[in-house]
């Protein structure tokens, strides 16, 4: 049930911005929310079918077959967004490997840290580009302050990873000296 609610929230949220086809919903979630959220086609299409059956979205009869959120769907979105957050258990492959790093050795651990640093720097650059793109958009002014909050969280996370990577390098250097 938790996963369905989260998928439902993402799909209804995407459709609250504008009507879209199922493919466009997936692309929007990937391109716009992808810095902090993902959904697969295998989750989106069944959710759209279920949401349509529940009267929360309507599919147009035109050639694009776009989905539109209904007033009931907007009410449901508000309800879902008002629920307490249900965090998923963390799964971080980098931390799993570093935790057992004794078996990898410091060189392999250093390579993992370096890759994490490169990835964080790339993510930071992407988020800064998204920030600039959002600032230049028209017609989304009501949403922009909230979108920028999520961008800021991603930027802070990337900067924290970069700072952690510096500390991790120093720690690995100290291990090698002992």
Characterise this structure.
The protein has 178 residues and is mostly helical. It folds into two domains: 2-82, Orthogonal Bundle (Arc Repressor Mutant, subunit A); 93-177. It has seven helices and two strands. The chain has helices at residues 2-17, 22-31, 41-53, 71-82, 93-99, 106-136, 144-177, and strands spanning 57-59, 67-69. The chain has a two-stranded antiparallel ribbon with strand order 1-2. Helix 1 crosses helix 4 (71-82) and helix 6 packs antiparallel against helix 7 (144-177). It is elongated and about 70 Å long. The N and C termini lie far apart (50 Å).
Q: Residue-averaged pLDDT, rounded?
A: 91
Question: DSSP strand (E) fraction?
Answer: under 5%
Instruction: Provide the spatial order of strands within the biggest beta sheet.
Output: 1-2
Instruction: Kindly give the count of domains.
Output: 2
CA-based gyration radius = 20 Å
Return the string of H and E elements.
HHHEEHHHH
Helical content class? 55-70%
Termini separation comes to 50 Å
DSSP, total strands? 2
Instruction: List low-pLDDT spans.
Output: none
Backbone structural class: mainly alpha
Q: Label the overall shape.
A: elongated
Give the count of helical stretches.
7
How would a crystallographer describe the biggest sheet?
2 strands, antiparallel
State the gist of this model.
This protein has a two-stranded antiparallel sheet. Helix content is 69%, strand content 3%.
Write the layout of secondary structure elements.
Layout: H1 2-17, H2 22-31, H3 41-53, E1 57-59, E2 67-69, H4 71-82, H5 93-99, H6 106-136, H7 144-177
Antiparallel strand pairs: 1-2
Helix pairs in contact: 1-2, 1-3, 1-4, 2-3, 6-7
């Amino acid at each position: 049930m938790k996963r369905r609610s989260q998928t439902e929230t993402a799909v209804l949220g995407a459709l609250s911005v504008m009507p879209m086809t199922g493919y466009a919903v997936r692309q929007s979630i990937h391109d716009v929310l992808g810095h902090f959220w993902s959904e697969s086609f295998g989750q989106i299409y069944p959710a759209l079918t279920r949401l349509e059956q529940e009267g929360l979205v309507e599919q147009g009869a035109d050639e694009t077959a776009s989905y539109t959120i209904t007033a009931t769907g907007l009410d449901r979105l508000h309800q879902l967004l008002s629920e307490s957050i249900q965090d998923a258990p963390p799964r971080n492959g980098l931390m799993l490997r570093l935790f057992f790093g004794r078996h990898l050795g410091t060189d392999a651990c250093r390579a993992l840290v370096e890759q994490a640093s490169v990835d964080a720097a790339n993510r930071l650059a992407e988020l800064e580009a998204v920030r600039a793109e959002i600032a230049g958009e028209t017609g989304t002014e009501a949403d922009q302050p909230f979108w920028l909050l999520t961008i800021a969280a991603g930027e802070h996370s990337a900067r924290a990873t970069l700072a952690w990577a510096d500390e991790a390098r120093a720690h690995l250097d100290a291990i090698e000296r002992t």
